[in-house]
Specification:
The complex is a heterodimer of chains A (314) and B (459). Chain A is mostly helical and 314 residues long. Chain A has two domains: 57 residues; 227 residues, MetI-like (MetI-like fold). Chain A is built from twelve helices and two strands, in the order H-E-E-H-H-H-H-H-H-H-H-H-H-H. Chain A has a two-stranded antiparallel sheet. The radius of gyration of chain A is 28 Å and the shape is flat. Chain B is of the alpha/beta class and 459 residues long. Chain B folds into two domains: 166 residues, Periplasmic binding protein-like II (D-Maltodextrin-Binding Protein, domain 2); 206 residues, Periplasmic binding protein-like II (D-Maltodextrin-Binding Protein, domain 2). In chain B, strands 1, 2, 3, 4, 7 and 12 form a six-stranded mixed β-sheet that branches. A four-stranded mixed β-sheet of chain B has the order 9-10-8-11. The chains are: A mainly alpha (314), B alpha/beta (459). Chains A and B meet through loops of A and helix 4, helix 5, helix 13, helix 20 and helix 21 of B.
C-alpha cells in the first residue's frame, strides 16, 4: 500500500520535473529566438511598426501645418474621404492604372524573355538592351518622356502630325493622360520584369526540353506545357511585385502631370503626398495611407489565396 | 562565411562611428570653427574672431539661383564678420515641408525664403521671429521700400518677414507674330475681349500658331481676379478677420472661365495644362503668340527667344476698370530661437539685400522687380531698361496698381489647396467641359477647404 502510494507520488514529481525542464528549454529557445530576431524586430519597429501606429493615430485627428494634432475628429477623416469625389476618382484611376500597366508589362517582358532565352550569337547584347530600363532612374525616365510628350515640339506629336492626324494632348487631355503615364510606366518596368523572368527561364532544367524534343513536341506545345508551368513561381512573384509597385507609383506622376489634368492621374500615393505636404492636412493624408495599406494587404492576401494554387513549385 | 560577416560588422561599426562624427560636425560650434579655418587660409586678417555663420535656405533655381549666389558672394566678400551659406532646398513647397520637419531644432536654418501664400502658415507656426522686433530695436527705416510691398507684407503695421524677391504676372507676346497678323506690336491687347480679337487675327494669319495660352495655375487666376478688383477670400481677403468663405462674386469668378471657354471654342487657345515650362517652350518655338506668366522669367524669355518679345500689362474684362496686381514672389523669414549673434548677422544680411545696388543687380539679372525703388535710379538699371524696355513694364504695372484689399492679396493657410482646386476647374474647361459645372464644383470645394482649414485650427 505504502509502496503503491509512493509510486503514485513518485510519478507526479518526476513528471513535474520533466515539464519544468521542457519549460526551461522552451524559455531558453524562445529567448534565443528573440535574440536572433531582435535586430530585425528593432529595425522593423523603428521604421515600420511605429510609423504605422503613428499613421493610424494621426488619421483620427486634424493637424496644423507642422503636423501637430489639434482636434480629435474620430472617423470624420474617413467619412470625408469616402464622400469626396476627388478621392473616389483617385481610387478609380489607381485601379485603372494597375489594370493598364501590370498585364501589359508582364506580357511584353515575358515575350522578350522567351526570345532572349534562345542560345544565339550575340544574345548578351539583346539581353543588356532589354533590361537596360532598369538602370534608368524614375526621374531621368520621366524627364525623357516629358520631352517626348511635349504638346508642340515633342517627337510623338510630330509623328502623329506626319501621319496627318490631329495633335494629341498626351499629358493635357484627361482621357489620354492616364494612358500616357501607363505607357511610361510600362516602359520603365519592362527592364526589371524582363530580368526576373529571364532568370526564371534560365533555371528551367534543359533535360525537360530534350525529352520533349525526343517525344516530338512542337515549340508552342513546349512553351505551354513546360515553360509556363515551370516559370509559374517567378511569374507569381513578378505579378505580386508589379501590382504593389503600381499601387505605389509616385515619381512619374510628380514629374509628368502633378496629378492633373482634372485629377485624372491623381493616383493614391500622389494624392496622399498632396494632402500631407501641399495642403498640410496630415489627418486626411494618414486616413488615405491607412486605406492604401488595407487595399494592398487585401490584394496580396487574395493573390496568395487564389493565385498560388496555380503555381507549380519544383 | 564567418569572415565575411565579421567584415560586415566592422564596416557597420565604422559607419556608425562616421555618423557620430558627422553629427558633431553639424553642431554649430564645429561649423563655425571649420569655416573659420577655411577662411583663415584665404585671408589672414588681424581679426581673430570667428566668422558668424548664417544658413540661408532658398528656392531659387536657374537664372535666379545664379543671381542670388552672386549676391551672397558679394556680401561675404564685402565684410569679414559674417559668412552666409546659401542652400537651395527645392521649390517653395518642398523647402517649407523640410523646414516644418526641422523647425525648433538645431538643424533649422537662420533665414528661410518662403512664398507669399505661406505667410499665414509661417506666422501661425510660432517658430519665427517677426522682423518688426529687429526694426524697432534698431529704429531701422523701412519706408524706403515700394509702397505695395509694404502693404502686402505688413499686417496691422507689423512686418513679419523681409520682402525680397517680388514679381507680378505680365503678358508676354510675340511681336513678330503681331506684325504678321497686321496688329500693332506696340499696342498689345489690354482687355479680355481684345486678347480674343488679337488671337483670332493671329490664327487667321498663321494657322500653325495659337493665339493665347493660360497656364492652369491658381496664382494667375488670383491675379486675374485682383485685376478686376475682386477679393479671393471674404473678410477683406482675410486681412480684417479669418476668412470663412470665398470673396469673389459669381460674375467676377466666372468671367475668367468664360473668357477662356470662348477662346477654346474659337480654337485660338493653346492648352499646356499645368506645365509652365512646356508653355514657355511652346512660345519660344512659335506655337503660341501670347501667354501670362510671372515677370520673374522675363530675362530668360527675352534672352532665349529668336524673335522680338513684348511684355504687357495683365488683361482685364472690358466691363471692369483695371485695379492692378497682387505682389507675388517670396520673402525672407528670421527663425526664432537662434543665438543673438547669429540673428544679428542674419539681420545685417537682410538689410544688405534691400540696398539699391543689390536690388538693381537682382532686378536686371532676373526680372523680379526691385523692392527698393531707389534701385531704378542706379546706372545698371537705367542702362538695362534702355536695352530691354520690357523689363520696365513690370515696374510700371506695379506702380499703376491701386492699393485696395483686392490688390493687397489674400492671407490664409489653405491657399495652396485652393489653387489646386482652381487649376482642376480650369483644366476641365480647357478640355471642353461646361463653365457652369466647373465653376460650381470649384466654388464648393474652395469653401469646403476654407471650412476644413478653420476646423483644423480648432475654431
Amino acid at each position: 500500500m505504502s509502496m503503491n502510494s509512493s509510486v503514485i507520488q513518485q510519478i507526479p514529481t518526476s513528471q513535474i520535473e520533466f515539464e519544468r525542464a521542457i519549460k526551461k528549454q522552451r524559455v531558453k529557445n524562445f529567448s534565443k529566438g528573440i535574440l536572433f530576431l531582435s535586430p530585425s524586430i528593432v529595425l522593423f519597429s523603428v521604421f515600420l511598426f511605429y510609423p504605422l501606429a503613428r499613421t493610424i493615430y494621426l488619421s483620427f485627428y486634424l493637424t496644423d501645418a507642422t503636423g501637430v494634432t489639434t482636434v480629435f475628429v474620430g472617423w470624420q477623416n474617413y467619412v470625408t474621404m469616402f464622400t469626396s469625389p476627388i478621392f473616389l476618382q483617385s481610387m478609380k484611376s489607381t485601379f485603372l492604372f494597375v489594370l493598364y500597366t501590370v498585364p501589359i508589362t508582364i506580357i511584353i517582358s515575358l515575350f522578350l524573355a522567351v526570345i532572349a532565352n534562345e542560345k544565339l550569337k550575340g544574345i548578351g547584347f539583346f539581353r543588356t538592351i532589354y533590361s537596360s530600363t532598369m538602370g534608368i532612374s524614375v526621374a531621368a525616365a520621366s524627364v525623357f518622356w516629358l520631352y517626348l510628350f511635349h504638346p508642340s515640339i515633342g517627337p510623338l506629336n510630330l509623328l502623329v502630325k506626319a501621319f496627318g492626324a490631329n495633335e494629341i494632348g498626351w499629358l493635357t487631355n484627361p482621357s489620354w493622360a492616364l494612358l500616357s503615364i501607363s505607357i511610361t510606366t510600362i516602359w520603365m518596368n519592362i527592364g526589371f520584369t524582363f530580368l526576373i523572368l529571364l532568370g526564371g527561364l534560365q533555371s528551367i532544367d534543359s533535360s525537360l526540353y530534350e525529352s520533349a524534343d525526343i517525344d516530338g513536341a512542337g515549340y508552342f506545345y513546349q512553351l505551354r506545357r513546360i515553360t509556363i508551368p515551370m516559370l509559374s513561381p517567378t511569374l507569381f512573384f513578378v505579378v505580386t511585385v508589379a501590382i504593389i509597385n503600381a499601387f505605389q507609383t509616385f515619381g512619374q506622376i510628380d514629374i509628368l502631370t502633378q496629378g492633373g489634368p482634372v485629377n485624372s492621374t491623381n493616383l493614391v500615393v500622389y494624392s496622399i503626398y498632396r494632402e500631407a505636404f501641399v495642403n498640410y492636412k496630415f489627418g486626411s493624408a494618414s486616413a488615405q495611407a491607412v486605406l492604401l495599406f488595407i487595399v494592398i494587404l487585401l490584394m496580396t492576401f487574395l493573390q496568395f489565396k487564389f493565385g498560388e494554387r496555380k503555381v507549380h513549385y519544383q | 562565411m564567418k569572415k565575411i560577416l565579421a567584415i560586415f560588422m566592422l564596416g557597420f561599426v565604422l559607419f556608425l562611428a562616421a555618423c557620430g562624427t558627422d553629427g558633431d560636425a553639424s553642431d554649430p560650434k564645429g561649423e563655425k570653427t571649420a569655416s573659420a579655418d577655411a577662411e583663415s587660409t584665404s585671408d589672414q586678417s588681424e581679426n581673430t574672431d570667428e566668422k558668424q555663420v548664417v544658413t540661408f535656405w532658398h528656392s531659387m533655381g536657374g537664372a535666379g539661383q545664379e543671381a542670388l549666389n552672386a549676391i551672397v558672394d558679394s556680401y561675404n566678400n564685402s565684410q569679414d564678420k559674417v559668412q552666409v551659406n546659401a542652400e537651395y532646398q527645392g521649390s517653395y513647397d518642398e523647402a517649407l515641408t523640410k523646414f516644418n520637419s526641422v523647425a525648433g531644432t538645431d538643424s533649422s536654418p537662420t533665414i528661410i525664403q518662403t512664398f507669399e501664400i505661406g505667410t499665414m502658415s509661417m506666422i501661425n507656426s510660432g517658430t519665427i521671429l517677426p522682423i518688426q522686433e529687429l526694426i524697432d530695436a534698431e529704429g531701422y527705416d523701412m519706408s524706403g521700400l515700394e509702397e505695395n510691398i509694404i502693404n502686402y507684407y505688413s499686417l496691422d503695421g507689423t512686418f513679419y518677414s523681409m520682402p525680397f524677391n517680388s514679381s507680378t504676372p505680365v503678358m508676354y507676346y510675340n511681336k513678330d507674330a503681331f506684325k504678321a497678323a497686321n496688329l500693332d506690336p506696340e499696342t498689345p491687347p489690354e482687355t479680355f475681349e481684345e486678347v480674343e480679337e488679337a488671337s483670332q487675327a493671329i490664327v487667321k494669319a498663321n494657322p500653325d500658331m495659337k493665339g493665347f495660352a493660360l497656364q492652369a495655375y491658381g496664382w494667375l487666376y488670383e491675379q486675374l481676379l485682383a485685376n478686376q478688383g475682386a477679393l479671393l477670400l471674404n473678410n477683406d481677403n482675410g486681412r480684417t478677420d479669418t476668412p470663412t468663405e470665398i470673396g469673389w462674386t459669381e460674375e467676377e469668378g466666372k468671367s475668367i472661365f468664360e473668357w477662356v471657354k470662348r477662346m477654346v471654342d474659337d480654337e485660338t487657345f493653346a492648352n499646356y495644362g499645368t506645365n509652365g515650362d512646356n508653355m514657355v517652350a511652346g512660345f519660344l518655338a512659335g506655337d503660341v503668340a501670347m501667354f501670362l506668366q510671372s515677370s520673374a522669367s522675363s530675362r530668360e524669355v527675352i534672352d532665349n527667344a529668336p524673335f522680338e518679345v513684348g511684355i504687357a500689362f495683365l488683361p482685364h474684362p472690358e466691363a471692369k476698370k483695371r485695379e492692378g496686381v497682387v505682389i507675388g514672389g517670396a520673402s525672407l523669414w528670421m527663425i526664432d530661437g537662434k543665438p543673438e549673434e547669429e540673428t544679428k548677422a542674419a539681420w545685417d544680411f537682410m538689410k544688405y539685400l534691400q540696398t539699391p545696388e543689390i536690388q538693381a543687380e537682382w532686378h536686371v539679372g532676373t526680372g523680379y522687380f526691385a523692392i527698393n525703388p531707389a534701385a531704378y535710379d542706379e546706372e545698371l538699371v537705367v542702362e538695362a531698361h534702355e536695352e530691354m524696355p520690357q523689363l520696365k513694364v513690370t515696374v510700371d504695372q506695379l506702380q499703376a496698381t491701386t492699393s485696395s484689399f483686392a490688390t493687397q492679396g489674400a492671407l490664409m493657410d489653405m491657399i495652396p489647396e485652393g489653387r489646386k482646386i482652381i487649376e482642376t476647374a480650369l483644366e476641365m474647361v480647357y478640355n471642353g467641359g461646361e463653365v457652369d459645372d466647373a465653376y460650381r464644383t470649384a466654388v464648393e470645394q474652395f469653401n469646403t477647404a476654407i471650412e476644413q482649414a478653420n476646423a483644423a485650427r480648432g475654431n
